[in-house]
Write a structure and sequence with these properties.
The protein has 252 residues and is mostly helical. The protein has helices spanning 2-12, 19-25, 37-58, 64-74, 77-86, 97-101, 108-126, 128-145, 155-165, 207-229, 236-239, 243-250, and strands at 172-179, 186-193, 198-204. It is built from twelve helices and three strands.
Length: 252
């Protein structure tokens, strides 16, 4: 267990003085009494404040309404579950037998709650500055890519608009697996954009939630591909290609 937590601390870029706080942050209520719900409450407050301050600094000309929408998008369950996947939190979660059998280590709500609890644990262990540093590091890429004009639109809508602007076919969503009992299912949905060879999968507590999560992953892939396609070319002919053609040729 210690080795695993050391790897997680490395990913967080924070070493706990009291590692018991980290263990508690990773403990779901199904596992025992000393679970992470109170830490989640604290971490949620710290996260919201830090993200608000980061947005306030990064977008000095953006009004309160757009800042609020951006913050809501950055602290929502899907974003936190994505951070959890980046940290490989499913490897460290402490769940009860029932949650283990039903695939709780993949459940976005459990993953998102654990991320907030970890932020709360860092705050309890080291104070505000380390908590802010950990959050800022994990959100650095997301803050670079956030666009005030797109806030308020869900991921499926944004992906559809991006593909339409490139004159490409709409994405295809497919349920590839379901886990758990009928009243508490977890859906795995694939999102595919065949023309760009994009194929991603994401979980969700409903089919719609899983589709939104998969669309968000597809947007990330598209962002990366556009960055490659927009990079300077040594050969003039390639630099003059239209974006859809350049994107497709990057994957030949």
């Amino acid at each position: 267990m210690a080795a695993d937590l050391s790897r997680l601390e490395t990913a967080l870029d924070y070493r706990f003085r009291n590692r018991g706080l980290l263990q508690q942050a990773l403990t779901h209520r199904s596992h025992g009494v000393n679970h992470n719900e109170r830490m989640e409450f604290l971490g949620d407050a710290v996260l919201n404040f830090v993200v608000a301050s980061l947005l306030f600094e990064r977008f000095p000309r953006t009004d309160e309404g757009d800042l609020s929408r951006m913050r809501a998008n950055l602290v929502r369950q899907a974003t936190l579950a994505d951070i959890a996947n980046f940290l490989s939190l499913s490897e460290y979660l402490r769940l009860g037998e029932g949650e283990l059998k039903s695939g709780g280590f993949r459940r976005p709500s459990i993953l998102a709650d654990a991320v907030e609890a970890i932020f709360g644990a860092i705050y309890m262990d080291g104070g505000f500055d380390p908590a802010r540093g950990a959050i800022a590091a994990l959100y650095e890429g997301r803050l670079l890519n956030v666009d005030p004009r797109s806030q308020g639109k869900d991921a499926k809508t944004l992906l559809q608009e991006r593909l339409q602007a490139l004159r490409l076919d709409l994405p295809v969503y497919t349920v590839v697996a379901t886990h758990g009992a009928a009243h508490d299912q977890l859906f795995e949905v694939a999102c595919e954009v065949p023309q760009l060879e994009i194929s991603v999968q994401a979980p969700g507590s409903s089919r719609r939630a899983a589709e939104q999560a998969a669309a968000q992953l597809a947007i990330g892939r598209l962002d990366a591909m556009e960055g490659i396609a927009g990079a300077p070319r040594r050969r003039k002919r390639r630099s003059q290609l239209s974006l859809p053609v350049a994107l497709s040729q990057e994957h030949k």
